[in-house]
Design a protein that fits this description.
Nucleotidyltransferase, domain 5; 2 domains; 12 helices
Length: about 325
Amino acid sequence: MSSKADILAVDGGNSKIDAAFVARDGALLGAARGAGASFAPSEESRSLTALVDTVRRAAADAGLDPAARPLAPLSVLCLAGADLPVDDRRLLRLLRPLKLGVELVLRNDTFAVLRAGTERSWGVGVVCGTGMNCSGVAPNGRTVRFAAIGEVSGDDGGGGWMGLQAIRAAVRGGDRRDPHTSLEREVPAFFGVRSPLAVLELVQTGRVEPYVAELAPVVFRCAAEGDAVAAALVDRQADEIVAMVSSALRRLHLTRRDVEVVLGGGLFHGGDRGFIERIERGVLSVAAAARIKRLQAPPVIGSALLGLDRLGTANGAGGRLRAALTHERLAAARGE
């Protein structure tokens, strides 16, 4: 193992897994992007396979022996499935035998988004992609997080939720239980069928679920074209983000601070300014000095910066890392 590889940083979510080997001076030694994984209890085997493959390719890119263990003195993994304390324990049991690092730090992926989007050690981070979650860190290090495991934990939001709501609206509009909506036409068209009923047949036979989150851009487009039902779904998503952020701000007593709120995930990349403005208004009504930022950098930078923070070198090394660990670099590592 090269002594230059001080940190293995990983950001893992439903859409992709990014891994990077970083030196304590912020130099990027190697990186890779792999297939996404939920790290949920029902998908542990597939998730670990995707993780190990991505780390293996990042190690090869860094000139390290992928079979050597441990791969780095410190590994920081920010994973979408680390939602509840029981998830932390479950994932640590699975990860420790892999010997990815001498020291293993596990966090939810919202912490990577937060740290990637700010130069501070505190603030609020939101992930809104296939699913949605939020975490907050106070200046004194105290944290808050949410269960974010779906309806049972009171969650409305994320691309998966929005896709299901779009199908629901199309069906109910089509059978006249609710007002007509352009989703009656656009949702079936997305799946290559003729009617909302045909979409339900796909659902019933298990041929839709993996693609439901991909309906979110359809909802945003219909909303932008003036469809009231789609617009209500977009507003509801924005309001749920505001509810989570506001809760974190209040619980951490940050409502009077110039707190930075970092928004990361696919639903923030669509360029819908009205969606962002509704979030901004809602957050500022609770914390007038807050600053809302859309994350432009890869969240894996946040995982690496958390590692540099732990080593006490982030301030001088962060700029070097940010310049090297870009979306373009990771896309090239994936062959995109």
